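User: When convenient, might I ask for sequence and structure tokens for a protein?

AI:
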Amino acid sequence: MSNADIGLIGLAVMGQNLALNMNDRGFTVAVYNRTVSKVDDFLAKEAKGTKIVGAHSIEELVAALKRPRRVMLMVQSGKPVDEFIELLLPHLAPGDVIIDGGNSNYNDTIRRTALVESKGLLYIGTGVSGGEEGARTGPSIMPGGSPAAWPHVKPIFQAIAAKVKRPDGGEDPCCDWVGENGAGHYVKMVHNGIEYGDMQLICEAYHLMRDGLGMSAGEMHKVFAKWNKGKLDSYLIEITRDILAYKDADNKPLVDKILDAAEQKGTGKWTGISALDMGIPLTMVVEAVFGRALSALKDERVAASKVLAGPAPKFTGDRKAFVDDLQEAVYASKIMSYTQEYMLMRAAANEYK
């Protein structure tokens, strides 16, 4: 029977949680995974007792869907997205919608939108923010691509998205149409770039408190707990607070044992490259990307530290006043970073229309 509201391909945790979220909101979801055993495992465990429908082939997935068909890809960005688009095209009809919910590069989304539209179909590239927990309970969703596709996915996307309460007591979904072509993935890229900047600011504040003031992890935990109750209230400040309080088995702070080398998935780098292309001074994010690159040079840093020790600062002033000033400095830096990101989005809107 062709009664499923949407099809979802890719049953890693993000895909599973989105499917369960859609089911909770009253939508019938058909799911497929290239490793077909994952479909059966999902139906037998996490999706047991739901209305979620399993499919063991692309043909079976498409056959389960209402017209116009909506198929969402939750697969690894890059080649897998192109491969699944090619697999889907022969089975879909004009007016059907393909949705890429991964962290794709916006240039790829521009290319894919043109390809899919040339076949008479509609395409959406959407950022999905909030991680695995957000996917299950309410993510922020940033769709862009073929404008004609928006009415077909709007009821589903706005139902599953996180909600923000208005002063009048009503709610607004954290999801609306962003723009054409790669606009959705561009905004998701910038969103991730902002997080790179925020994390760099947290690192610099931590560094000043630990090495400048000689504060312990427990003392810094109290500072971040206080900050999270004020204007710096945010997810990243909140989890920093929790990490600083976490003790290892020997009752010593776990943070002091973690290797000081950060990885990166690429979205911060893409944001910096776009800023360079647009001529926008995105200083905060680019420095944050370089900070991660520098952190990865662990062996070189260890060797250098034996040659040049650096200063051993002794702070003799008012510690409380310093920490209060540090809060203001982080806040001011966040405002400047966010302003730079909005400048970048404005330039991109002019460039890509």
